[in-house]
Specification:
With 116 residues, the chain is of the alpha+beta class. The protein has a single domain (11-113), classed as TATA-Binding Protein. It has helices at 26-44, 100-113, and strands spanning 11-12, 21-22, 49-54, 59-65, 72-83, 89-98. Strands 1, 2, 3, 4, 5 and 6 form a 6-stranded mixed sheet that branches.
Length: 116
């Protein structure tokens, strides 16, 4: 299900930069995001950092659990979408819950590892 193409790709307006946009097709951008998330899972431990795909779109929900695996320290969503009015595809990373500083660390690591 992870590499199954979605029915549609959303077109969204958001603050984007050259680090989070690409002219590559959305499937290639999604595979690159998946590669980076696998690196993060190795870095934080596969039992603590988990991610799953929302089936209808190019969206991944990510969660980092504490060491006891009892509570979520940070949860965020990564989406590959078409940039509104442009022929580009971008990566939008949105914090859902948890500590902002921990999310910032994840955001910085993801942007540093992405090769778009």
């Amino acid at each position: 299900m992870l590499h199954k193409p979605p029915k549609t790709i959303r077109s969204i307006r958001y603050a984007f930069s050259s680090n989070t946009t690409s002219s590559m097709p959305p499937q290639a951008v999604f595979q690159e995001v998946h590669r980076v998330l696998l690196l993060l899972a190795q870095m934080y431990g596969e039992d603590r950092f988990v991610f799953e795909r929302i089936s209808d779109y190019y969206v991944l929900q990510c969660k980092l659990y504490d060491t006891g695996h009892k509570r979520v320290e940070v949860a965020f969503e990564i989406e590959v979408a078409k940039v509104w009015l442009l022929k580009l595809h971008g990566v939008r990373i949105k914090r859902l819950m948890g500590e902002p500083l921990l999310f910032k660390e994840f955001y910085t690591n993801i942007i540093a590892e992405l090769h778009l």
